Amino acid sequence: MSLFNAYMSLSGATDADVRRDERLAHHTTYRIGGPAGLFVTVHSYAALLKVVSVLAEERVEWVILGKGSNVLAADAGYDGCVIVLDDEFSRIKVGEGGLLTAGAGALLSRVVNEALKAELCGLESCVGIPGTVGGAVSMDAGTRREWIGQRVRDVVTLRPGEGLHRYEASEIEWGYRCTSIPTSEIVLEATFQLERGQKQAIAEDMEARLRRRRSSQPMGRP
């Protein structure tokens, strides 16, 4: 394994920001975590392919990180590469028939707000949950009675060395804070099937849920 060789190969990568010894405490909501051997922010699909390819060649372990919520990073750090999806992976598109597609790097809060603007209901249970779409889908975020997997129509992942793969929601096992999506794959985007609703009613439901969260959880604190 050669972190140095990987760093040298990726430093000139198009659409990617590469750093060494980046403290993970700066990227986790618990504000803990030592340095990552490499910390790469990719801005496009092409850049992600290059990064994953170089890491495989140099036999460097990697992990995808969203906004670092519900993540415990060791004080000793991570002797591998942390990959963050940005820009091209943060797009949100509202389609016809109540469909909403969001990239894995999109903030879940943005997705919830876009659904509200489009007068689409179904994601109210996600209001106030920190993190990205990729993380929320990977861990089936939500409450004990409602979870994001209930609204997923399909998920697109990258299988390193193979290419893109699309999962229908029915092909995924959804559990409490877990799914059957292999950790060796990278979630790229998800499409949600939502329903038409009244904007005022959706907003009031979200506000009520936020009040309950604030009363039981220290929102905005490590």
Mean pLDDT: 95
Largest sheet: 5 strands, antiparallel
According to CATH, the fold-level topology of the largest domain is Uridine Diphospho-n-acetylenolpyruvylglucosamine Reductase, domain 3
Report the β-strand fraction as a percent range: 25-35%
Distance between the termini: 34 Å
Domains counted in the coordinates: how many?
Answer: 2
Helix content: 10-25%
What is the helix tally?
Answer: 5
Order of helices and strands: HEEHEEEEHEHEEEEEEH
Structural class: alpha+beta
Number of strands: 13
The first-level CATH class name of the largest domain: Alpha Beta
Radius of gyration: 18 Å
Q: Point out poorly predicted stretches.
A: none
CATH architecture of the largest domain: 2-Layer Sandwich
Main sheet: which strands, in order across? 5-6-12-8-9
The shape, in one word, is globular
3D structure, described in words:
Strand 8 and strand 9 (163-168) form a beta hairpin. The protein has helices spanning 3-10, 45-57, 108-117, 133-138, 199-216; strands at 16-23, 35-42, 62-64, 78-85, 92-94, 99-103, 120-121, 152-159, 163-168, 174-175, 178-179, 186-193, 195-196. The chain is globular. Helix content is 25%, strand content 29%. The protein has two domains: 3-87, Uridine Diphospho-n-acetylenolpyruvylglucosamine Reductase, domain 2, CATH 3.30.43.10; 91-215, 2-Layer Sandwich (Uridine Diphospho-n-acetylenolpyruvylglucosamine Reductase, domain 3). Strands 5-6-12-8-9 form a five-stranded antiparallel beta sheet. The chain has a four-stranded mixed beta sheet with strand order 1-2-4-3, covered by helices on one side. The protein has a two-stranded antiparallel sheet with strand order 7-13. The mean pLDDT is 95. The protein contains five helices and 13 strands. It is of the alpha+beta class and 222 residues long.
